[in-house]
Specification:
- This protein has about 280 residues and is mostly helical.
- The chain folds into two domains: about 5-15 and about 95-279, Hypothetical protein af1432 (Orthogonal Bundle), CATH 1.10.3210; about 15-90, no CATH class.
- Helices cover about 65% and strands about 0% of the residues.
Length: about 280
Amino acid sequence: MDPGSIATKVSTIFSLPEAVLRVNELIDSGDASNAEIEQVISSDPALTAKLLKFANSSYFGFSGKVETVLKAIAIIGHKELRNLVIATSVTSTFKGIPAELVDMDTFWNHSITCGVTARLLTTNISSRERFFITGLLHAVGRLVLFIQFPKESAEVLSHRLEGEEAMISAERKIFGFSHAQLGAELLKQWKLPSNIWKVVENQSEPTKEKEYRYDTSTLSAAIGIANVIQPCVNVTESIEEIPNNTLETWNFLGLSAEIIDSVMTVAKLQVIEVYNAIR
């Protein structure tokens, strides 16, 4: 099996709304006006409603009510806006996932926790929205496997008591690639930038590419923290049970137990707001 061909095959099934893709393109161009972006978002009533709900959540802490898309864009800014339009759309993109394989509310709670945590961990303020999206989308490849290969996915999940590394090893043995590689291919199909899909692709091997070591380490650290706060298919319940490679990542980033505890406290509060706005 080839992750690229699978992603191409399912990209029409698991596709972001046209308005979301167009907003992404406009923001990437670097010269789009607020009015142009507002026109695209307003063409999708569901996206408009979710965006305004999110903009008015305490996650952003704006003073005064945000009543129009144009005002939301002006206050939030283009980069954070992309964060919002993708986040508000992606959770409704995947449908028909076998319930016996995954509880979708639990899955998205975990993914949102990863996104929020990655956003809190990065020291680069200008890249916060990118880290949120990377964390949010880090496991979408697993959803593709669930719906395309349910029998094989059940076999992978039979290793969940052994931890995430055992499941990734099972994926590679059964499929010839990991869910991270498949997810990266899908994000390419969605025309997301390489500094998102490359990080997703290498999430379990943060040191593989030096150019992305900090980014992949941040994502890996966020996943480890999220597994403590809100496990998905991983059964880790305490920091004492964190795998060694995750601990090494935390050490590389200089994350002390006090910092991790502080991040977890803030993340738990923010996740509630983001989850309620998105789901």
